Amino acid sequence: MTKAKQQVVDMLQSIPDDKVVHVLEIMRGLMRLYNTDNDSMIIKDRESSVMGILKKYANPKLIPMEKEAWGEAVREKYANN
């Protein structure tokens, strides 16, 4: 057994029995992911479907301001309170 797998086993042994159910669900999901023939294809499909999903609706003039938009919105919210 590799050192990494041994660390996983040690961590599992320290988790209370009533919480192991959640870990089991995560492991099942990982096994489904790794048991497919096209692992990288699945990951790329998810990234392309999640990242930039609303890009086609974006106003090109506002894209450069995206990084500051959240901070500006928070400042405006708390400036008015």
Global structural class: mainly alpha
Mean pLDDT: 78
> Could you state the order of secondary-structure elements as H and E?
HHHH
Helicity range: 55-70%
Overall 3D shape: elongated
**In the residues, how many domains can be counted?**
1
Count of DSSP strands: 0
Distance between the termini: 58 Å
Helix tally equals 4
- Unreliable stretches (pLDDT < 50, length at least 5) are none
Largest sheet: none
Strand content: under 5%
* Rg on CA atoms, Å: 22 Å
Describe this structure in words.
This protein is mainly alpha-helical and 81 residues long. It has one domain (3-79). Helices cover 65% and strands 0% of the residues. It is built from 4 helices and no strands. The protein has helices at residues 3-14, 20-34, 39-50, 66-79. The longest helix is centred in the middle third of the chain and has 15 residues, at 20-34.
Please supply descriptive tags for the structure shown above.
elongated; 81 residues; 0% strand; mainly alpha; 4 helices
Fold blueprint:
Elements: H1 3-14, H2 20-34, H3 39-50, H4 66-79
What's a quick, concise take on this entry?
This protein is an all-alpha fold and 81 residues long. It is 65% helix and 0% strand.
